[in-house]
Design brief:
By secondary structure, this protein is mainly α. It has 6 helices and no strands.
Length: 96
């Protein structure tokens, strides 16, 4: 129930600061496969660079291979922040 609430906040709250706090709280559950998979899915939905970089960092540290597809998508999008692309590229080098 707590995870569902945190993911709802991460994916829908209007405030980037609140979404960032939810991402940081979710990092505590990184040992749970479901949490890692849902974070990888959430990475595809995020548009705020702070949240994107936060999720990339968490998923990379966890060696989550399901993050590879969303990371590749980030690199293919022209509208993505340059720092986010740098972090995505580094993460892909680590995960592949």
């Amino acid at each position: 129930k707590l995870l569902n609430s945190l993911f709802l906040t991460l994916n829908t709250d209007e405030s980037p600061n609140v979404r960032y706090a939810a991402a940081q709280a979710l990092a505590r559950f990184i040992d749970e496969e479901d949490a890692r998979l849902r974070m990888a899915e959430s990475l595809e939905e995020q548009t705020d660079p702070l949240i994107q970089i936060s999720l990339i960092s968490i998923l990379t540290e966890a060696q989550e291979k399901h993050a590879i597809r969303p990371l590749k998508k980030i690199l293919d999008q022209d509208s993505i922040n340059i720092e986010v692309k740098k972090q995505a590229k580094i993460a892909l080098e680590i995960l592949t």
